[in-house]
């Protein structure tokens, strides 16, 4: 049975109730987030993307922290569940406020996850099964022009303050919007989206879609003609001080950047050796890059986007069937996950969207096609263990399922990126440990995915913190790392396409600190598992991996500063 929607208590004084009151209040201020959570289903608004709208959200965060101070002073965080929630809420809101106070809200333009992307993506998350639901889509679609104007006003204020996004972000987003506007259907992407509406509504919705598309075109032109020239002298990298704030936000930790950089280079050399051995199995005498190029062009491939979607659905269904009862105990709602094709104009990386809180919208994986019709298998299998099962889907859907035992905040808005991505990378490793990657091509794809995550740590920290390539680097030892050098180095050791790597570099520049969380998060998960196993052995007990998995996935969100200690104690 699907659990009933959660009732949020806005009057409580314990940390968990304060956290859930925050979710409820934020859903009122931020309707786009409410859609993601599956709350306020009749609300047709779009979040106020103006400076005033952001100020209201910041005010809510400050009020919530004040309520938390009072609750903790009164001893309301005495037990472990309340303590964990209080630590998470304080850390998350403090990290968000630090970014706001540094003016990051005013340069929120990047190739993934910026407000203009959110305005489009919300429509992919809305239910469209009935005429009434399409009516609501139409009302929200009519609000797109005003929302985009609010967003433009925020960027304009940032421009006036000298707080601008980097030139590569501007160029990329202008190009993305151009893709959204393309197509034979009037209204571009929005017009194509409403073609699935009931015939009785289609003409009216198409007219609204054309207006929304016109507003997108106006934003594109402003970004190209006004914002872009103003941002032309801005650095694409952020510098060590700004970078440290973003690292704290994405990881929930105060990381030693120099230690992490050195560790990543150790991982690089180890993975390079493993990939050379695996490449020999794919094509005797081939280097890893030669073997991966052969797999890309000559290896097994799936033809057609729909066939690829079906293949990935089968991969996840098989993983659920095999792992259920052996390595996980999954509740019935978690057994459903959908494979989808990503909207045109998405960034290159596949992604996952969490179920709504009542599971009326299931978890979904999304495959960007980038105009392709052929999809080589070698790099898909490990990726879908990451995005789907046992990766993001098992963690985020389990959090959703147990939200009433924790707090809604801990399983949704309080999610720490490095925790999520660390688990998903651990999930890839788990499938390798369990023998699911014995095919040489699939395993080379897995090792390449691991290498990509290690390279992310190297280039992300190196570019933004202004570090040099070390003396034992096979590429430009001792020289400083700039974006163009980082891109060339990335391409020499990662077997993914040039278009994908170009998109990735722009992503790292626009989301500083996010990309390092995959490998550093996996390191935290592995250290926690090793400590829990050692503790069981010291007690004379056999380590129960299935029980550990379920306990670990039932903690809710934790930052990396807390994750290892909590996992070790399970």
Question: What attributes does this structure have?
Answer:
5 strands; 570 residues; mainly alpha; globular; disordered N terminus; 23 helices; 3% strand
Describe the protein's topology:
Layout: H1 15-29, H2 31-37, H3 51-73, H4 80-101, H5 115-125, H6 131-141, H7 144-161, H8 167-181, H9 188-193, H10 199-231, H11 239-251, H12 257-282, H13 288-298, E1 301-303, H14 305-323, E2 337-341, E3 351-353, E4 363-367, E5 374-376, H15 381-387, H16 392-401, H17 417-433, H18 440-465, H19 483-493, H20 498-510, H21 517-538, H22 545-553, H23 560-568
Parallel strand pairs: 2-4
Antiparallel strand pairs: 1-5, 3-4
Overview of this protein structure:
This protein is mainly alpha-helical and 570 residues long. Among the domains are: 1-102, no CATH class; 246-517, no CATH class. It is 62% helix and 3% strand. The protein has 23 helices and 5 strands. The chain has helices at 15-29, 31-37, 51-73, 80-101, 115-125, 131-141, 144-161, 167-181, 188-193, 199-231, 239-251, 257-282, 288-298, 305-323, 381-387, 392-401, 417-433, 440-465, 483-493, 498-510, 517-538, 545-553, 560-568, and strands spanning 301-303, 337-341, 351-353, 363-367, 374-376. It has a 3-stranded mixed sheet. A two-stranded antiparallel sheet has the order 1-5. The longest helix is centred in the middle third of the chain and has 33 residues, at 199-231. It is globular and about 60 Å long.
């Amino acid at each position: 049975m699907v659990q009933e929607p959660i009732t949020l208590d806005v009057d409580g004084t314990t940390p968990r109730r304060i956290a859930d009151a925050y979710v409820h209040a934020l859903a009122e201020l931020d309707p786009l987030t409410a859609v993601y959570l599956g709350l306020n289903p009749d609300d047709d608004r779009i979040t106020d993307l103006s400076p005033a709208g952001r100020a209201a959200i910041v005010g809510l965060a400050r009020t919530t922290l004040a309520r938390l101070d009072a609750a903790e002073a009164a001893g309301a965080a005495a037990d472990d569940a309340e303590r964990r929630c209080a630590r998470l809420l304080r850390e998350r809101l403090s990290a968000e406020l630090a970014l706001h106070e540094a003016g990051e809200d005013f340069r929120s333009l990047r190739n993934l996850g910026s407000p203009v992307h959110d305005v489009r993506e919300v429509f992919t998350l809305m239910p469209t099964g009935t005429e009434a639901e399409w009516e609501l889509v139409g009302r929200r679609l009519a609000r797109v022009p005003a929302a985009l104007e609010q967003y433009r006003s925020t960027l304009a204020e940032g421009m006036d303050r000298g707080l601008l996004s980097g030139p590569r972000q501007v160029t990329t987003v202008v190009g993305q919007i151009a893709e959204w506007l393309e197509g034979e259907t009037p209204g571009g992407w929005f017009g194509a989206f409403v073609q699935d509406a009931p015939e009785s509504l289609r003409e009216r919705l198409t007219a609204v879609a054309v207006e929304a598309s016109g507003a997108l075109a106006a934003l594109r032109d402003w970004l190209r003609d006004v914002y872009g020239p103003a941002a032309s002298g801005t650095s694409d990298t952020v510098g060590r001080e700004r970078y440290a704030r973003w690292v704290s936000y994405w990881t929930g930790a105060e990381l030693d950047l120099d230690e992490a950089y050195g560790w990543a280079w150790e991982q690089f050399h180890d993975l390079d050796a493993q990939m050379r051995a695996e490449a020999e199995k794919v094509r005797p005498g081939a280097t890893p890059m030669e073997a991966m190029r052969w797999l890309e062009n000559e290896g097994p491939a799936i033809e057609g986007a729909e066939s690829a979607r079906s293949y990935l659905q089968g991969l996840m269904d098989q993983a659920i069937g095999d792992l259920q009862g052996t390595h996980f105990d999954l509740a019935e709602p978690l057994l459903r996950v959908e494979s989808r094709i990503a909207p045109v104009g998405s960034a290159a990386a596949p992604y996952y969207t969490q179920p709504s809180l009542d599971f009326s919208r299931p978890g979904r994986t999304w495959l960007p096609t980038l105009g392709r019709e052929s999809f080589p298998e070698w790099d898909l299998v490990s990726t879908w263990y990451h995005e789907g099962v046992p990766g993001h889907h098992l963690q985020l859907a389990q959090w959703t399922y147990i939200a009433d035992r924790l707090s809604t905040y801990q399983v949704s808005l309080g999610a720490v990126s490095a925790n999520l991505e660390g688990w998903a990378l651990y999930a890839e490793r788990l499938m390798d440990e369990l023998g699911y990657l014995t095919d040489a091509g699939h395993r080379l794809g897995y090792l390449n995915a691991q290498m990509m995550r290690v390279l992310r740590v190297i280039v992300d920290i190196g570019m933004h913190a202004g570090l040099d390539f070390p003396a034992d680097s096979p590429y430009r030892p001792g020289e400083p790392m700039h974006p163009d050098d980082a891109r060339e180095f990335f391409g020499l050791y990662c077997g993914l396409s040039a278009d994908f790597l170009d998109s990735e570099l722009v992503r790292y520049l626009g989301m500083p600190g996010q990309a390092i969380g995959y490998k550093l998060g996996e390191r935290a998960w592995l250290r926690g598992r090793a400590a829990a196993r050692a503790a069981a052995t010291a007690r004379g007990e056999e380590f129960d991996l299935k029980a550990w998995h379920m306990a670990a996935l039932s903690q809710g969100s934790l930052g990396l500063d807390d994750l290892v200690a909590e996992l070790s104690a399970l």
